[in-house]
Design goal:
Blueprint: E1 23-24, E2 27-43, H1 48-58, E3 65-70, E4 75-83, H2 87-92, H3 94-101, E5 105-118, H4 128-138, E6 145-149, E7 152-158, H5 162-172, E8 173-174
Parallel strand pairs: 1-8
Antiparallel strand pairs: 2-4, 2-5, 3-4, 5-7, 6-7
Helix pairs in contact: 1-3, 4-5
Length: 177
Amino acid sequence: MSIAPLMKGQHLPLNYQFMNDKILIGGVIHHPNMCMLEMIGIPNSPGSAGRAFSIFGKKNISLEFISETEACDGLSNITCCFHTNKCDVAKSLHSPILVATKAQKLKTKCPVEIITIYGPHFASKPLIAAKFCEALGAMNINMLGITTSINSITCVIHSDYHDLAHKAIQDNFIFPQ
């Protein structure tokens, strides 16, 4: 990020944060003991995500993380996470999911952890996503998935990195008293 030099008498906006400054957040939520399923190469058409998610729902599997992207080839990839106590049931659903979504392949990663930092007012903190990703990257933690909402940023990491991720967040963010 580059900044034009300030002229005498100019000030940065009140909501501006430098990357080496800690940023105030509302808190952190950790979801350990999760399993991640990637549905890769799905023809991107209306209803494909719904067909996949209904298969999980009918087997009482709550999806605690969902992310979908369209690749440059026009196919989409859907990633979802659920608790590891549902992993065996989810594995039994691979064939129905492949049929319902026409996915080219499914990939499972287990155990993973979901980490969410939440606001309020992330719209007034434009560096918060960069700060979160850079903090994890500085600890050599690779994110397996990431998604946001208006007041939160959520990522999926391998469970082995729980302690390092916690330290990265503590070192880079301020929590309410």
